[in-house]
Amino acid sequence: MALITEARSVCAAQALLGEGPVWDAARQVLWFVDIKRRLLWCHDPADGVNTSFPAPGQIGWALPAEDGLLLCGLQDGLYRFDPATALFSLLCTVPGEPAGNRLNDACTDPWGRVWFGSMDDAESQQSGRFYCFDRGSVTPAGPSGYAITNGPAVDPLHGLIYFTDTLGKRIVVADLTAAGAGDIRPFADCARDFPQAYPDGPVVDAEGCLWTGLYLGSAAARYDARGTLIDRVAMPARDVTKIAFGGVDLMTMFVTTATKDVADDERRNCPLAGHLLAMPSSVRGTVSVPVRW
Fold this sequence. Notes:
about 5% helix; 5-stranded mixed beta sheet; Neuraminidase; mainly beta
């Protein structure tokens, strides 16, 4: 079922590749990135102020940490970012990553670990894989051999972690415990449900359903815990990359979008492409656990 809702622009970022929205509960702001313009953005819903910070490389994601800093995934490794000084500092590289790869998407789990993926920057070689950052240590964890990874997304209610193979148009899932991720099994066949679109960034709501942005799909899709498509929310942008739930009650849906593959004539017909969008949500999100160093 397609749900039509009233999305509005809250940041005219003109993003080439807007990605990685995450709600910062401590500051009551939303962080997101423009990977290709190498910008970290902060949106404050209270006053509508949007602030951008130049990053020292392509930045795939930024996650709030327990000490007030952010952990960021850039092309060449993991960085600390201090919002007070706007300075990035290299924390560590990711061993074994090919020179043509970059980091793309990430989330935290209930133990404060960070799960993130890498991908071929040219979006063709199957050189991407997933990793876990745990108290300063980076180890391979989860599936590998993807050209474009997205996610992971964690379901704390059911103890699950989801991984997206964007070019393969599929989402897989594994059990998640304090010991790590278990065996991978199929979850959703997005090629069947959206043959013209690609699953992008995923996130899980408080009811244990998974949402995915749809690149080339002008929508976000919602799957239940069995992998059945149950909702589709139309968006005023063709390339929808990821959503995040935020606001005081976690009932606002924030949506990042992209323009890097949109022709000029298409942009005229879709003026909110590249913007950060917001709309009321009919379902609550979950709280993102801060990164634990």
